[in-house]
Design a protein that fits this description.
Strand 5 (about 100-110) and strand 6 (about 115-120) form a beta hairpin. The protein contains 3 helices and 6 strands; from the N terminus they run E-H-H-E-E-E-E-E-H. The chain has about 140 residues and is of the alpha+beta class. The N and C termini lie close together (about 10 Å). Strands 1, 2, 3, 4, 5 and 6 form a 6-stranded antiparallel sheet that branches. The chain has one domain (about 5-130): Hotdog Thioesterase (Thiol Ester Dehydrase, Chain A, Roll), CATH 3.10.129. The relative contact order is 0.23.
């Protein structure tokens, strides 16, 4: 299997994203992760038209490794951890000053809102997702 190519997004840390302790608040990372998934969302809806949105969030998990601070940009690296029939899992990392500060996983479901059920992910979208697919630790 070839090496996964992450999608990378860089954000400037805003002062309002810091807390009383002087570091980035823990809920900010979930927002950064969501914004950094826009390129993945565009595989499903190239225009990002919310009226055509087929995805719902099933779960997310964040692990914090190091504190993040105001004044230095962060880079979010987005990978695909798993691709299923109707769902997929992203794995994301927050990097600041060449240090991995947090990781997160998010499970998203391709959803048919009219019928209120999951829907298969097309082969074309699976092909786009697979470029970012991490090798399994199970092998």
């Amino acid at each position: 299997m070839s090496e996964a190519h992450p999608l990378e997004t860089t954000f400037d840390v805003r002062f309002c994203e810091t807390d009383a302790l002087g570091h980035v608040g823990n809920t900010v990372l979930v927002q950064w992760f969501e914004a950094a998934r826009d390129p993945v969302f565009a595989y499903f809806v190239p225009t990002l038209d919310i009226k055509k949105w087929p995805l719902i969030l099933a779960s997310y998990h964040v692990d914090f490794h190091h504190q993040l601070f105001y004044g230095t940009p962060v880079t979010i690296k987005t990978y695909i951890k798993r691709i299923g029939r109707s769902s997929f899992v992203t794995q994301q990392e927050v990097w600041q000053n060449d240090q991995k500060c947090a990781t997160g996983t998010t499970t998203l479901v391709n959803f048919d809102y009219q019928n209120q059920c999951s829907a298969p992910i097309s082969d074309a979208v699976k092909d786009k997702l697979s470029v970012h697919l991490l090798e399994s630790d199970d092998e």
